[in-house]
Inverse folding.
């Protein structure tokens, strides 16, 4: 075997073990008995120790030095394996295992604290998570910015300064649009009770409409919706609210965007470093274009209105146009995942600033709730009424995912670019969506972006798909046009 072949054989086993660890995480969030959390934390720590040893095995360095890439795919494989190898060598094995142990335990503590509105019960374990991630960030940064080092795990090649510049361009136009919309007459709301059975039936239907392959996946319930896995086993979760069916429907479409990206990657990348989404920003571009540009379009909501009438009867909306306005309703609210397109990125901008301050030691965990509440009031003009609507609403920090949040807004920017190109290339898109058929859009995304996996760097992946360099302009132009029309601005 050549050095390249030996390296890929070794890497496939590592990737397979990482998939097993991911499956343990899925199990923990969906069906694991609550009394199993302590043992699961030890299992996750043990498996992380095995993975860290493989990822830092000196033979990987030797193979990288000797390997010759046979083609473009080989060059990309070597690039990504080297990036990960050099990253993991900077982190002690004991620290990697401890992070896995503590974050596994912290997620269960967070879920319980959120249910009980108990910030005090969550802060001690969050302090441990923050301490460990600060230590990891310092090890990775080697005298550089620890937050940038963590951000690079989720969006390789991007710095917090670049993200801040993008956010600086987004904020003025988003705030101006929000203020104009909030001052206009309100859009209608759906009313009534929406059974869980009906919501899950519709969730399965829209998942199939957006290309999700149930023969290689499944849909379950979780406290916080997520997608897990890659290749031939990609699972999604959603949640239900008897008074708000949109939470379930659009959480499902969102996670299907993530999942079909993973399911759509070319099989030749199976169990390699290229066999998964290239970054979380690009990943988020798929979930957001599915959820917003496609799922909240006038064409698709016309079809959805009919299906909801079939399942739930009258729910206080007279016609398709009113339903379109209800789906895209802008209103003051606390929850990021339930936010409208106009305000969603403002939630991310707030979290981006707070987690940078946390990782750089400018804010301590004991002061985090106060900092959150002050910033939320300043940005949204509403006082946080309870912890589950504030600091405890998101799972990310309990899981130690510092550097993750900004990729949501980066994904929105990428989605705006992709949607402009999609509209350019698929002339009858609205006619398809009006029949509940998203296959034209899904096929375009699969061919132009999804099948390539990690072949190209993140920004180059979007540029290749769209045919132009990404910027925030398409997203902002789209939002101003859409909501200007919806609210008669």
């Amino acid at each position: 075997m050549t050095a390249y072949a030996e390296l890929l054989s070794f890497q496939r086993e590592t990737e397979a073990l990482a998939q097993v660890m991911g499956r343990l995480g899925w199990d923990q969030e969906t069906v694991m008995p609550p009394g199993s959390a302590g043992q699961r934390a030890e299992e996750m720590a043990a498996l992380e120790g095995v993975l860290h040893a493989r990822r830092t095995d000196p033979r990987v360095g030797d193979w990288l030095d000797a390997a010759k890439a046979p083609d473009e795919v080989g060059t990309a494989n070597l690039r990504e394996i080297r990036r990960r190898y050099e990253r993991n060598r900077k982190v002690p094995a004991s620290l990697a295992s401890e992070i896995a142990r503590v974050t596994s335990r912290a997620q269960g503590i967070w879920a319980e604290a959120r249910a009980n509105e108990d910030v005090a019960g969550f802060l001690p374990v969050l302090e441990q998570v923050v301490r460990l991630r600060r230590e990891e960030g310092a090890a990775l940064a080697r005298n550089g910015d620890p937050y940038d080092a963590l951000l690079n795990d989720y969006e390789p090649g991007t710095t917090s300064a670049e993200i801040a510049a993008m956010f600086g361009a987004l904020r003025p136009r988003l705030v101006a649009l929000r203020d104009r919309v909030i001052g206009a007459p309100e859009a209608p709301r759906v009313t009534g009770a929406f059974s869980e059975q009906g919501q899950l039936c519709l969730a399965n239907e829209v998942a199939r409409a957006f290309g999700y392959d149930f023969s290689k996946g499944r849909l379950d319930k979780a406290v916080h919706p997520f997608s897990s896995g890659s290749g031939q086993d990609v699972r999604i979760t959603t949640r239900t609210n008897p008074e708000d069916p949109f939470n379930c429907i659009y959480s499902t479409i969102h996670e299907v965007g993530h999942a079909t990206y993973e399911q759509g990657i070319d099989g030749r990348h199976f169990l390699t470093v290229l066999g998964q989404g290239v970054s979380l920003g690009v990943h988020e571009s798929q979930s957001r274009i599915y959820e917003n540009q496609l799922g909240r379009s006038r064409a698709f909501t016309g079809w959805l209105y009919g299906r909801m009438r079939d399942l739930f009867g009258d729910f206080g909306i007279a016609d398709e146009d009113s339903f379109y306005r209800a789906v895209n309703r802008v209103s003051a609210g606390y929850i990021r995942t339930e936010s409208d397109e106009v305000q969603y990125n403002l939630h991310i901008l707030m979290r981006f600033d707070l987690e940078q301050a946390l990782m750089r030691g400018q804010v301590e965990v004991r002061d985090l709730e106060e900092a959150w509440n002050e910033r939320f009031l300043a940005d949204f003009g509403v006082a946080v009424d309870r912890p589950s609507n504030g600091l405890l609403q998101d799972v990310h920090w309990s899981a130690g995912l510092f550097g993750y949040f900004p990729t949501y807004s980066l994904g929105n920017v990428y989605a705006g670019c992709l949607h402009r190109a999609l509209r350019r290339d698929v002339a009858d898109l609205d006619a398809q969506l009006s029949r509940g058929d998203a296959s034209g859009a899904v096929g375009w995304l699969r061919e132009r972006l999804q099948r390539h996996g990690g072949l190209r760097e993140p920004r180059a992946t979007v540029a290749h798909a769209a045919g132009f360099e990404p910027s925030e302009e398409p997203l902002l132009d789209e939002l101003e046009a859409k909501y200007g029309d919806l609210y008669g601005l």
